[in-house]
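User: Fold this, then the next.

Assistant: Folding the first:
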Amino acid sequence: MPKIDIAKLPVDTVSLYPDPFRQVTVGRERKRLGNAIGLNQFGVNMTTLKPGTWSSQRHWHQNEDEFVYVIEGAVVLQEDAGETVLKAGDAAGFPANSRNGHCLINRTDRDAVYIEVGTRAKSERTVYSDIDMKVERDDSGAMVYSRKTTGEPYPKRSG
């Protein structure tokens, strides 16, 4: 099994969300651990959230499970039932189609680091709980962000 040199992995700061929804994720940094060794059935990322940063907009997945394990610092898990503080050593998970919108928010003054693990379903539909957005990915990997209310696609991001 190949050893991953985490320090040498590139940092991914990209958010595919259309404006203005991506602003809350500015300050999120991911190292794609699973990609580094060629995993294709599930993803594993080491994610750092800078102070004030969100992991994502609050969402749930139709076909993909999600799991998070906090390594350093603390985050607020925001979900349908309310908010819970997760500290180093705490974990949470979300089965596919749970319809429990969730995200992590760093409300502290220091970085928070966690591992996220998720299924890589061939096709997926993600619904965003608090905003008028959903994203669908087909078997080819093409993703379309659109309004939940009308189905109208958001303009694709350029850069």
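Now the next one, as you asked:
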Amino acid sequence: MKWKEYREYLLSKEDLAELEINELHYKLLREIIKYRRERNLTQKELAEIIGTKQSAISRLESGKLNPSIGFLQKVADALNVKIDIKFIPEE
């Protein structure tokens, strides 16, 4: 049995939906942290660049903040990366 089939076997439809939402959220957070570290920026330095407080960056990176697209764009600009949002049909 493949992982996807096994996961569906174990989880209800509601659980799967929640898992997929969280998976997307945490992938995004990992990317932000990765690029911030690659640029040798502290949370405080990143916050200063985008005009916010270090605590906002901490909440973002910990998953406690549900950021707006505008806030994510500010972070992306400060990290010199682009945001690419796509809708992909389910298989």
